[in-house]
Amino acid sequence: MxxxxxxxxxxxxxxxxxxxxxxxxxxxxxxxIGLEVSRGLAEAGANVAILxxxxxxxxxxxxxxxxxxxTEVAIKAYKANVTSQPEIExxxxxxxxxxxxxxxxIVVANAGIATHYAGLDYxxxxxxxxxxxxxxxxxxxxxxxxxxxxxxGHGNVxxxxxxxxxxxxLDVHPKEWRDKWFGxxxxxxxxxxxxxxxxxxxxxxxxxxxxxxxxxxxxxxxTLP
Length: 225
Prior knowledge:
Elements: E1 23-26, H1 32-43, E2 47-52, H2 57-71, E3 75-79, H3 85-98, E4 106-109, H4 124-152, E5 156-159, H5 175-183, H6 197-204
Parallel strand pairs: 1-2, 1-4, 2-3, 4-5
Helix pairs in contact: 1-2, 1-6, 3-4
InterPro entries: NAD(P)-bd_dom_sf (IPR036291), SDR_fam (IPR002347)
Keywords: Oxidoreductase
GO molecular function: oxidoreductase activity, acting on NAD(P)H, oxygen as acceptor; oxidoreductase activity, acting on the CH-OH group of donors, NAD or NADP as acceptor
């Protein structure tokens, strides 16, 4: 939501969390955190474009269909490589036209990969791969969305940052590392992806109308001083 807009002071608080009539896009939306974010936005009423790269097209379409049937909103899967600026820009333009009837309200730059190499052992190719997806891909996604937002006068970008969430992406790290991290979490457990849905809905909704440029830390107390 643009900071120049604000919900009516008379609107009930729960209504401010509704995304009914909104169009959202989630990169990396078929697996792990992205899948739950896609589901959460749909449960809040948004029509959702799910972007994927490595998921089989038939599987991505089934995921979209299953969420749509459960939530009764429009969900569509789009294949896109976030490391390609022209490709992600074209896909976001297509989503805006096809799913949003010319309007795009919410973009979640969520696509990411994990690697595990000693700092001294990273090759230029390995470093480039993770930066292309996790940094450049997020920027290209937000940049393409921002061009649309500027034209229409409103919009909302949410970035997914790194964290210890209970998905198979953690398996790339040695068990002793994971055990050490786990021991530093006061909550004494890892966060499940579905627990993040509410945070994303909040950030995508009118309920967060005066939040911008902020970090919402969800880590079970890991970063407490």
